[in-house]
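ingest -> validate -> predict -> emit
validate: passed (alphabet ok, no gaps, 111 aa)
predict: started
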Amino acid sequence: MSIEVLSAEEKEAVWRAIAAMPAILTFEYEARMGITQEAALAILDDWPKVDDFVDESDACLAINNSLNDLLHGITLTDTQCKELTGVYREELLRIYRKWATARGWESTGVR
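emit:
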């Protein structure tokens, strides 16, 4: 599980990112997240004991797509990012890259 490389504080930021997405993505949630809101709620309930090992798993999609959308798809200010996730954009990007690197991914698509 690549999520295991994250500290408790980093996991909290990711949890908050996933939890914020229903309010942000409203009608296009499933199309952009790749999972249902019910699946995301189950992940949040089980957090941090989720299995994100398989790229197509609900947990992997929830983590990847919420972080990618917050950092790349939605234009958030640093203040908005801090309010939603508890960390600023630069820190959220660092967490995203740390998680992706642990998966063996060379890129997150976010610069």
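The chain has a mean pLDDT of 92.
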